Amino acid sequence: MVTYAEIQASNALINDATAPRVAVFVGATSGIGKLTIKAFIATGASMRIYLIGRKSSEERTNSFIQELHAINLKAEVIWTEGEISLLAETKRVCEVIKTKEPRIDLLFLTAGYTPFTSRRDTAEGLEISQSLAYYSRMLFILHLLPVLDAAEAPRVISVLAGGLERTSVDLDDIDLKKPGNFGPMKAQTQYTRLNTITLGKLAVDNPNVTFIHSWPGDDESGQRHLFQTTSAAFGGRGVPWNGKPGVNSLEKQADGLFLVNYKCDCTPNAKVVSLLREKAQEKIWDHSQEVLRPYL
User: Fold this and answer.
1) Residue 174 DSSP symbol
2) What is the per-residue pLDDT for 193?
3) Are β-strands 47-53 and 257-260 bridged in parallel, bridged antiparallel, or unpaired?
4) What is the C-alpha separation between 81 and 79, in angstroms, rounded?
5) Which helix (DSSP H) or strand (DSSP E) does residue 53 occupy?
6) 238 close to 184: Cβ distance less than 8 angstroms
7) CATH topology of domain 4-295
8) Most buried by CB count within 10 Å: which residue of 32, 69, 190, 193?
9) pLDDT digits over 44-85, tens only?
């Protein structure tokens, strides 16, 4: 376990040189994303943050942004409205950001929820929780990869359930559309595996970008995710780290995809991830490309 004291010590070293200068937070109007933005702002570093959320969140988020500005006058937080359960809207938001920013240092993805009701589809034919937890996240990454790759040490963090993968994945019904196949437990476990499998491929294809699939935690999560976004513990780039180096999903002390639990320990889950990579990656990637292609 990386102790909270070690995390606080590392985070205290964050400054203008080590903080992400431009960050995009998707789904940060509440919960872990909101806590992480607040932790970023409290470092006092100069940064620009795009905070993306629904129209219904705008009023309370603007109040939050005013609070943040009072904490750190060097930070700029830009409210960006978007109904990102819709892939067309995700594309639009990405295009807006790309016209403004030649490079992005951090993409932080937390949008989503556990679907305790029956299946609810968007106007695009995707189940809402799956669109938020998987398709929209991957579309954000694919659209923003060119500007991420232009940064010195870019990171992508998807907060869901990294390290909790199991070997079973429904490849015959990836979107869980068959009658009786959709439910909260099945959906969450399916989305987790889809995230890890696709992030793993993206990490191999984009070696300049560090990817983290994180398992959320408690009220310390803002500081712990700040650590994940800045520490050299994950891939060697960032705030200097004298502790044990993180191990990626290929069981190497190198860059790539890190599966990180709520205590900031790397949990490669190597046997499971290796099996998923072998039996499921190609089919999931092909299916995802088919879904996302109209919005790329």
Assistant:
1) T
2) 96
3) unpaired
4) 6
5) strand 47-53
6) no
7) Rossmann fold (3.40.50)
8) 193
9) 999 999 999 999 999 999 999 999 999 999 999 999 999 999
Instruction: Tell me if 85 sits within 8 A of 128, measured CB to CB.
Output: yes
- Rounded Cα–Cα distance for residues 129 and 141 (Å): 18
Cα angle 278-284-287, degrees, rounded to a multiple of 5: 145
Residue 41 contacts residue 67 (beta carbons within 8 Å): no
Spans of all domains in the chain: 4-295
pLDDT surpasses 90 at 217: no
Note every long-range contact of 232-239, with CB atoms under 8 Å and residues 24 or more positions apart, other chains counting: 233/2, 233/10, 233/264, 234/155, 234/210, 234/258, 234/260, 234/266, 235/210, 237/152, 237/153, 237/210, 238/18, 238/153, 239/10, 239/11, 239/13, 239/14, 239/18
Structure tokens at 91: 């594309």
Give the separation between CA 40 and CA 14, rounded to whole angstroms.
Answer: 9
Q: What is the mean pLDDT of residues 201-212?
A: 97
Please give the Cα distance from 88 to 182 (Å, whole number). Answer: 24
Rounded mean pLDDT of 84-90? 98
pTM above 0.85, yes or no: yes
